[in-house]
Amino acid sequence: MPVDPLPAWDGDVRAARALQVRLAGEVLLKDRYPTPLRTVAGCDVGFEDGGAITRAAVVLLDAETLQPLEQHVARLPTAMPYIPGLLSFRELPALLQAFALLSRTPDLVLVDGHGIAHPRRLGIAAHFGVATGLPSIGVAKKILTGTVATDLHDMRGAFVPLRDGREQIGWLLRSKPRCNPLVVSPGHRVAMASVAELTMRFTASYRLPEPTRLADRLASRRG
């Protein structure tokens, strides 16, 4: 029987964590995105009014030129408090509403947040991917879980594995020299080996790849 990836929040933290583990089992770590990529979307989520309103932003870009094609914002009353490790349950309702406003389905989605680089392997990018079926990558600004065993070179595009024990859960990626690295990990329908290269394909002169950079500006009302 299909599992509801986003049930109404009832305050049961233990049940939500158990659902994360179950949904993580549905994540596909294989390349199943269209080729050639024609469109890529970036998304980010912020909050207004002291957290009372969830503000989700999505920007659709041409995958070759990185020119924005459309952008949308969805604002919803926040349905649950902040609980470490369960952020996707808080952010996903508004994010799904923002994506419903797109006039076309993106070939790939870069999500500001973690993919499987999460204690239960279901960060916002993985949760979003399973809920929508869309190929997705998590692009986060800091490590949530895991360690790296080797130093990361300061050269643009350098990356080293992020592991939780013996399991690789993502990459530490130097998207821009002399800047803190990004944590990139598969969300859904993208192989581990493809994540760093795909992220760099959409990264120009800034630390963040263009899709999530533009979405971040929109979600935080800077653009």
In short:
This protein is an alpha+beta fold. The protein is built from five helices and eight strands.
List keywords for this structure.
223 residues, archaeoglobus fulgidus dsm 4304 fold, alpha+beta, single chain
Describe this structure as you would to a colleague.
By secondary structure, the protein is an alpha+beta fold. It has a single domain, classed as 2-Layer Sandwich (archaeoglobus fulgidus dsm 4304 fold). It is 24% helix and 27% strand. An 8-stranded mixed sheet has the order 3-2-1-4-5-8-7-6, sandwiched between helices. The longest helix is centred in the middle third of the chain and has 13 residues. The radius of gyration is 16 Å and the shape is globular. 47% of the residues are buried. The mean pLDDT is 96.
| Integer average pLDDT | 96
CATH class category name: Alpha Beta
Number of strands: 8
Which structural category do the helix and sheet elements fall into?
alpha+beta
Strand content: 25-35%
Output the CATH topology: archaeoglobus fulgidus dsm 4304 fold
Computed Rg: 16 Å
Query: Total domains, how many?
Result: 1
Portion in helices? 10-25%
CATH arch. level architecture: 2-Layer Sandwich
What separation lies between the terminal Cα atoms? 43 Å
Principal-axis shape equals: globular
Name of the CATH superfamily:
archaeoglobus fulgidus dsm 4304 superfamily
**Unreliable spans:** none
